[in-house]
User: What shape does this take?
Amino acid sequence: MDFSHVISLLGEPRFGGFSDAPSDPAWDRLEGELGTVLPEEYKSFVSAYGPCVLHGTFYVSHPRGAALNLPGFISRVSREARDSQGYHPEEFPYAVAPEPGGLVPVIATFDSDLVFLRPPGDGADEWTVMIRWDTFRWEWHRTGFVAFLERVLGEPEEIPLISRESFEWSEVPYEVSEYQEADTPS
Assistant: This one.
């Protein structure tokens, strides 16, 4: 995977390297809990940039992050989805991981929008991206995670997940979250 366009939009990663994901046991643990193998491009991006905030409004969690903890985030969104499906099924019409074939929540925004990875199926051979806007409207983007991220960062008016005001205001497009490794089982 070529990350040169992401690097041109965000700068060099300050957390890890793009090749760190395959050797990180935190990914293995998470995938075991989810019962699925996440796309390499997504894991490579998160491993390189770490738990981070993009343009002050786009929160990217990491499986070892403390404040932006990916397993905790997935668990919280999954619980909210199950609760919502009982009362307002239109808010979460899709299964959410760890349900088999469920969407995997990976990003939240300051405005309560959610970005999910959608497993292959329904005519897509690869992982794609779903957005759940805070208005409970859903959008399926039939691209991989990195291509989606490049569109959000490069053309924020096209997919306005990053607040336009924050995008224009923020001089630092990417900040590593205050990193403290979450307690992990040995």
Observations:
- Confidence is low (pLDDT under 50) at residues 166-172, 178-186.
- The helical segments are 4-10, 25-34, 40-49, 70-87, 145-154, 164-169.
